[in-house]
Amino acid sequence: MRGMSKDDFFKSFKNQSFVEQLKEIPQKFNVVHNEETKTTNITIYGVIGFSWWDESFSASDIDKALNEAGNNDVVINLNSPGGDAFAGIAIYNRLKRHEGKVTVYVDGWACSAASLFPAAADETIMGVGAMLMIHPASSAVWGTKTEMRKEAEILDELEEGIIDIYMTKSNISREEIRAKVDAETWFGAKKAVEIGFADKAEGTTEENPVEPTNLVEEKKRIMNELKNLLIPINQSQDPVPTSAITVDDKGNGSFNLLKKWR
Predict the structure, then answer these.
(1) Running along the chain, 262 residues long, what does each successive block of 10 average in pLDDT?
(2) Who contacts 242 (Cβ-Cβ below 8 Å, separation ≥6)?
(3) Is the pTM higher than 0.85?
(4) Is 6-201 a domain of CATH 2.40.70.10?
């Protein structure tokens, strides 16, 4: 979001159900380096990059923390309603260039500009009940119609860059991502894993694991190919084996071998 007050920022959310909760996120930026384990823990809670607000943290804060971390692996604990889009993009690129492993734990919310951080991670883990939200870029502008059209062109380009970032993690098409951005889409932990935005959901049982959508589709493809291979081409009158295969929505299949006169 560009050039907006705090109130205008939250009003830009189409879904206002969670706004009061998002406003209550405590502002916290904390960095702990552990030279013994060669890890750096960074807590990112609250608003990103709006320096004229009461409190926020900036891309410069992240850059300083990563410079101090050296080659340490980095663990980020994230809970943010978002904030300035360009600050979010700068933080994404800075995290992508870090030489150590980057792990992002979404403790609560990863909304708006904060939804870019999981895309920078080598591993993203959604906490129980955590949410990730993507939505259109917006800004506050005052001026002539020419200036407003120019601002709209900037927002178009900004969104293209943001979608580029989402596509580095997503397992669905660019058109589908664009539609989800336009609609303002909120993802729980399971949905975030299915779409590829996260790698793991905490609290998922071994008996009911979350499978990314692309793995489900691959299983369906394999089962359908197996079904075709088991259909006999023998045209004699001898009883020959054929199969009855069922494939469920998760791509799990089973088959029974039957005898059929040809």
Answers:
(1) 59 67 83 96 89 70 96 97 91 97 97 95 97 81 77 83 95 96 94 96 64 55 63 50 55 51 40
(2) 230, 231, 232, 257, 258, 259, 260
(3) no
(4) no
